[in-house]
């Protein structure tokens, strides 16, 4: 499983059909499994697993942080 530091993001949004979305505040670490599934640990220590099938991933970097880290 690949581990990526995404602590530079204020939030991350996974968008799905029918205007559904999953917004994760203060994400710290993204884990990408061998089959491409994402798992995100946030600043509270809560782990999120967005459902596969998302159409788009969006994020807002913290002020002064780079737009891309991976």
Report on the architecture of this protein:
Helix content is 0%, strand content 50%. It has no helices and seven strands. The strands form two sheets. The protein has a four-stranded antiparallel β-sheet with strand order 1-4-5-6, with no helix packed on it. Strands 3-2-7 form a three-stranded antiparallel β-sheet, with no helix packed on it. The two termini are 15 Å apart.
The low-pLDDT segments are none
Number of strands: 7
Structural class: mainly beta
As a percent range, the share of strand residues is: over 45%
Note the main sheet. 4 strands, antiparallel
With strands numbered from the N-terminus, the spatial order across the biggest sheet is 1-4-5-6
User: Which sequence of SSEs, written as H and E, runs from N to C?
Assistant: EEEEEEE
Report how far apart the termini are. Answer: 15 Å
Cα gyration radius (Å): 12 Å
What is the molecular shape?
Answer: globular
Average residue-wise pLDDT: 97
How much helical structure, as a percent, in the residues?
A: under 10%
Number of H/I helices:
0
Give descriptors for this structure.
about 70 residues; three-stranded antiparallel beta sheet; 7 strands; about 50% strand; globular
């Amino acid at each position: 499983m690949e581990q990526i530091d995404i602590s530079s993001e204020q939030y991350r949004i996974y968008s799905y059909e029918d205007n559904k979305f999953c917004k994760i505040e203060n994400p710290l670490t993204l884990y990408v499994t061998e089959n491409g599934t994402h798992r995100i640990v946030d600043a509270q220590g809560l782990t999120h697993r967005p459902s596969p099938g998302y159409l788009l991933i969006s994020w807002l970097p913290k002020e002064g942080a780079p737009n891309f880290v991976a």
